[in-house]
Amino acid sequence: MIEIATSPATTTLVITxxxxxxxxxxxxxxxxxxxxxxxxxxxxxxCAVTFMDSTGAAFLISLADSGRKRGGATVLRGTSDRDLFVxxxxxxxxxxxxxxxxRCTDEFPLQGSTS
Length: 115
Prior knowledge:
By secondary structure, the chain is of the alpha/beta class. The protein has a single domain (2-99), classed as 2-Layer Sandwich (Transcription Regulator spoIIAA), CATH 3.30.750.24. It contains three helices and five strands. A five-stranded mixed β-sheet has the order 1-2-3-4-5, covered by helices on one side. Helix 1 runs parallel beside helix 2 (54-69). The longest helix has 16 residues, at 54-69. It is globular, with a radius of gyration of 13 Å. It comes from Luteimicrobium xylanilyticum. InterPro entries: STAS_dom, STAS_dom_sf. Residues 1-115 form the STAS domain. It holds the Pfam family STAS.
C-alpha cells in the first residue's frame, strides 16, 4: 500500500508491505499523481517496506528522475541496507538523498538494517 501526503513544499509517500512486481499495476497512477503535485521535495518513507525487487527499485528511480528533471530532490527515509543495496546495484543510489537521522517507530521497525 502506498499513501500520499502533501504539504506546501513536500510530497511524502508512505510505503507499506512489498514494493515489487506484484504491486506494479499501481505504480503509473501513483507516479502521475506525484508528478502532478509538482512539489520540490519528495520524501519516500520505507519504514514499513518488507521487500523490494528491481521493479520496485525502478519505480523509485523513475520518481527520483522525474523530480530531478524539475529541479527537485528525493529523500529516502527508513530504507533498509538491503533496499539501498538494490538501488546501488541498479546504479541509481546517487539519485537519492538518504535520511540517516530518521528512526522508524516501533510500529514499523526498519527491515533488514544493521544501522
